[in-house]
Description:
This protein is an alpha+beta fold and about 110 residues long. Helices cover about 55% and strands about 15% of the residues. A three-stranded antiparallel sheet has the order 1-3-2.
Amino acid sequence: xxxxxxxxxxxxxxxxxxxxxxxxxxxxxxxxxxxxxxxxxxxxxxxxxxxxxxxxxxxxxxxxxxxxxxxxxxxxxxxxxxxxxxxxxxxxxxxxxxxxxxxxxxx
Length: 107
């Protein structure tokens, strides 16, 4: 979508849409499922868990990282990824505020 079109919407809606777009592929959902509850996982373990080629899996990992859903750490030649739970929590709260604007805020 051209930038000018995005200017017509509130920042929270634009951010929420970008975040949702990062989740809009089954491979990315599978990556998050694989990482859930595992802490840090080496990149090649994630690639092995996704039924795609290594380059395709890496692109999906990168999309999740760019959206802020994954954090990474490099150790030697290995890259480790983990879910950024705070980013996921912010997304859920933002979606809830967007869909239910007249309810009490979370405490």
